[in-house]
Prior knowledge:
Elements: H1 2-10, E1 29-32, E2 39-40, E3 46-49, E4 57-60, E5 73-76, E6 83-89, E7 95-102, E8 115-120, E9 123-129, E10 137-144, E11 149-159, E12 163-164, E13 166-171, E14 185-194, E15 215-216, E16 232-236, H2 251-254, E17 256-260, E18 264-270, E19 276-283, E20 297-301, E21 312-314, H3 315-319, E22 328-335, E23 338-345, E24 354-355, E25 357-365, H4 373-381, E26 404-406, E27 414-418, E28 425-426, E29 440-442, E30 447-450, E31 463-465, E32 470-473, H5 478-481, E33 487-489, E34 494-499, H6 501-504, E35 509-511, E36 517-520, H7 523-552, H8 556-570, H9 606-613, E37 619-622, E38 626-632, E39 638-644, H10 649-662, E40 673-679, E41 682-688, H11 695-700, H12 711-731, E42 736-737, E43 746-748, E44 754-756, E45 763-764, E46 772-773, H13 785-790, E47 792-793, H14 795-811, H15 828-837, H16 855-868, H17 879-894, H18 902-909, H19 921-926, E48 941-942
Parallel strand pairs: 1-3, 14-15, 27-29, 28-30, 29-31, 30-32, 31-33, 32-34, 33-35, 34-36
Antiparallel strand pairs: 1-13, 2-3, 4-5, 5-12, 6-11, 7-10, 7-13, 8-9, 8-11, 10-14, 14-25, 16-17, 17-24, 18-23, 19-22, 19-25, 20-21, 20-23, 22-48, 26-27, 37-38, 38-39, 39-41, 40-41, 42-45, 43-44, 46-47
Helix pairs in contact: 7-8, 12-14, 12-17, 14-16, 16-17
Amino acid sequence: MAAFRLLFLLLLSFVFASFTTDAQSPGFISIDCGGTEKYTDEIGLEWIPDNNFSYGEIANISVAGESRKQYQTLRHFPPDDRKYCYILSVKSRIRYLVRATFLYGLFDSSSVFPKFDISIGPTHWSTVVISDANTTEIREAILLANSDSISVCLSNASTGVPFISTLELRQFNDSMYYTNFETQYFLSVSARINFGTDDTTPVRYPDDPFDRIWISDSLRRANFLVDVATGTYKVSTRRPVYVNRNERPPEKVMQSAVVGQNGTLSYRLNLDGFPGSGWAFCYFAELEDLGPNETRKFRLMIPGMSEYSKASVNVQENAQGRFRLYEPGYPNISFPFTLSFEFVKTIDSTRGPILNAFEINKYVQISAGSQDASNAATLCSHYPLATWAQEGGDPCLPVPWSWVKCTSDQQPRIVAVYLSGKNLTGNVPSELSTLTGITELWLDNNSFTGPIPDLSGCINLKIIHLENNFFTGEVPAFLAALPNLSELYLQNNMLSGVVPRDLLHKNIVLNYSGNTNLHREGDQKVKLIIGVVIGLFFLLITAMFIYCCLLCARGEKKKTGKVELVEQMVAAPSLPAVPSLPAPPSDKAVSVFSDAATEGSHCFTLAEIETATGKFVKKVGSGGFGSVFYGKLNDGKEIAVKVLSANSYQGKREFSNEVSLLSRIHHRNLVAFLGYCQEEGKSILVYEFMHNGTLKEHLYGPLTQEKSVSWTKRLEIAQDAAKGIEYLHTGCVPTIIHRDLKTSNILLDKNMRAKVSDFGLSKVAIDGSTHVSSIVRGTVGYLDPEYYISQQLTEKSDVYSFGVILLELISGQEAISNDSFGANCRNIVQWAKLHIESGDIQQIIDPSLHGEFDIQSVWKIAEKAMMCVQPHGRFRPTISEVLKEIQEAISIETGGSGSGGEDDFDMLSRNSRHSSINVSPLELAVSDSYLLLDESVVLPTAR
Length: 943
């Protein structure tokens, strides 16, 4: 079995399997993605090509200043719904460093930079965002192997195409990077920095025997160290520094440092993957000569986290001398996205703080994977040469294999298997019967032989396709016992015997034609009876003929009478008359809306509406539909009354549409529908009253003269609106597409919380369809260009409109303007794209914000807005993905505290769906995806 598994790993199509090398340290694997030959690079690492990888394409690139051979090629993959996995052979219960690098080099000459996901097995590892064609993006993870292989998969392109330049594996020794949580979490490297060196070349193998990459603090690039304290200077030595254990930084890293001459070392660092819980250690070694009465003592200070600044550091005392390493740290600490920190000398210290290096890693929770993973892997092992069987990774996570369908649970199950026309032979593998959650099984158009497999344990099966194979034997009785079976296709096989009576009596679609030796019970008796009846019929005809001949001899009159009698006797019986269908109802009789459309809606009388509005005195809005009036019900509830224009036929259709939709959808981020009225030729809708009007009025209406909406509040408004849209797209069955999203349809309550309104143009998606064919409706400036051209409406049309809204929130500009965007541009999308792609985002930021924002959060929203307004819907994110980015931007602005109240919990643990839970502020900050801190964690630990 072990030999067979090794063969399976070596034979690959979708997956590059089992890489080994004889050089360097054991457990070193270096894959040149797109390469064609083995070679040893300038630092002594041996590289192997992935030229056995049968999917994806190779591209050659040339980047100025990059001469390393492994960065002259890359492998890229289609931007589809599949995942593309490399499988690396490892030893179970050993810790490894996995490193993937990505150098874009404009290989596809696209104007849009790629963004895609990378995962380890079923666990999402990181989202790779390319922002510079000539900068290498690096992702590193430290994990404990729990089997004999690790799958690294690329998937789910948001923009551009997924690609990879190199993939590396480094084996660690003993207890390196051991944590108490390693069976539930792996470490994703966020920062590993070498301080005090003038050389910008990273320190790695052979100086670091485990080939960790230590980046110089002299390297300046986006999301790296900024805000260096004044008075900081560098020190270095050539003398050996005692590091003792191999898990610590190499000696070369510890031979340089920075010192805060003025008593402070301060930095600000953007941490990839945070906010979240992390592992953070600092590395100190005294490199300067201190006098007999001199001391170097200092504390760590993190703004807003005073509990981490209690202990002071005395390097020489803790390290027990000069040129010796001391490494205090925290194995579990919660960090924001932007980390500001400083080391400050204590009052009794004569020298400022010193820092040689540090590492920060984020805990990434390991997914349990799908419930059917092991059974599916065993099934695939029967077909080592088949492409479909070598897709790698988990069958369901992060995206399913191309031939299965899975549930959306946290630990999903396989619910459908699609293996039609895969040229499969022999008996059906028994592992299929272990996939007990399947509802659909498609094995048709293969060459399977033998009996139909025993699927009696798969009680959820609804559809079974076994046609066009070579199955033999009888139709098994268990098929009739499957409680949910609705369709069974057995035609064109070699089945024999009798179809079970219970199966024939079951209310299902059943086809067993084309099986010569298969028949119904009692079919032979029926054939015998039919033969006897036919024989008797011919005997009767013969007798009648003889009788007629005898009549002819008796004369014309008698003959005629008898012949008429015979003709009546042998005439074919008449068929019963087919009842006529009732005539279709007249169009004039059709009501404006059906009873079903208004089910659950309150029907106001016109008198109630007139009393509430004072006979429509206070007009608060108007549009193509009609006018909106303020009112107050007898119970004090304030309402907005929307009155349909009498001469608007289209308005009547929108009225019916809005009533039917709003009667069945309820969400805190959708304007509450209270009821309707249809009397005396008036069509009226009644909503809750939104005190602060529309978002449009607060961005560029008269209200902006009073007070501008802050950037954080704009993000919260975007979050509220996105939640409402997400409910329409994912919480309604079938999906509802709004079709007219714009700032004037986002209303604000007295607390400035946003709700989506106006569903007059909304469409209900058809289950199973990719789009709704529809006459183009919407508002200029927000209208999806793909929908305009194709007249095919999808959820991504709403995403386009929402992207325009995000640009309005950033800029405070209208979607369409003759004056704001320059002489050659009237559209906010074209104008914003020009500045964002050139990196000049300041030119589009609303001046009324007065610089009160974190530029990182603005960039995050701007980039997501640009993805939303991609010309083609398939490249746009889902509204759920947009919502996640908005929440991360809020976290940046609030230092990880969220937007307050329930939304904080939504932002940090949306997937948990706990609607009410009592937690302390500390638990709230690290719940679900974060590890809970205990009191021991806030004390620094030296490994």
